[in-house]
Amino acid sequence: MRAWGATPVQIRKVLLGLWLLCAPFAMGGCAEVLPASGPASMDTLTRQNSSAIPYALLNVTPRVTSILAKNAPRLVAFADKSRPRDLRFGNGDIVAVTIFEAASGGLFIPLEAGVRPGNFVTIPNQAVDVHGNISIPYAGSIRARGRTQVEVQQAIVDSLSNRAIEPQVIVSLVDQRTSMVTVIADGRAASVIPARLSPERLLETIARSGGPGLAGSDMWVILERQGRRGIAPFGALVYESANNVYTHPNDMIYLYREPQTFLTFGALGTQQQIPFGTWRLTLAEAISKAGGLIDVQADPAAVFLYRGEARDVAEALGIDCTPFQGPMIPVIYRINLRDPSGYFLATTFEMRNKDVIYVSNSFSVESTKFFNYVNTINSTVDNLINTVTSAYGLRNIIRGTGAVPSSITVTPTTTTVPPATP
Fold this sequence. Notes:
By secondary structure, the protein is an alpha+beta fold.
């Protein structure tokens, strides 16, 4: 019996190990022990276990989708409905000047002008000099820099009105060297083309420079004008006319290719990086491209989208930005697809490049994981008890003090063991 005296001590050690395995659940730490592909929905909603980076949490509503739509990457910031300002001459522009008189015998048309083809004289082409002037006979230096074609014509007429007979002047641009538009496109050489006197749209300017070079859904357009900059997908210029704004002199247009992708995690059909495949993609389309929600795993009420929003956009959404530093605010958008109206919101929520979609598991899945874990622990403890029982029985047989016990009954205070065979 002495040999079996240590049995209760060993079994207590086994029970102590069982308690240690179950202790995390007793203290509410299931999420720290159970396997998972991401945070539980309750952890996200309550901001538990999120000490590294603070974030804002927003439910997707019609107001949210409306504000985000207004702040989508577009060129509407330049969508001034008024026509571009008239083209003005600058230093280096080559101009031609033609002067007409009402009758012969004047300053430019002699009395014998009857054999001439017309009552006008054309002055040789000349460049606007470093002082911004052009030289006109009998009128002297005429200011051209910063003036329009009509303004230069009137200035010449005013200077000749007391000398010529009812003079009229036509000023034309021969070679434009200042009011230029720069177009830089991936896949081809950059172009510097003159701005036109008549108003011209952005697509017309791009076409005149040789086209986008690399057409496709991954093309982007940057428009820079007087220190301001706007960006938009190339498709927005084609399909949304408000983005096809007027081109102004000295604009810089940059066309480049940047494939748009988003990431999927959690209870979705696929967990990977997925390309947009089009210039515009909604949240509903993105979920569909990822294979949809997994029917036996996903919680439709816990669909989250992770994105960094500009501070001004976050403030427009009603987020208190004082706890955050820097220009970008981490925001998690939550949409409830258990509600049928959530699908309508998902079709108006536009995806952005590098967005992250995460879908949490349902509570039943987490419960199943817990019970499977408990069953694993029970099986492990049973195996340990059987091993201990067999080991002590084998020792008794070797010592010749007894046989293998048929069972061991464990109570809080005593252990009952069948008597050994004499």
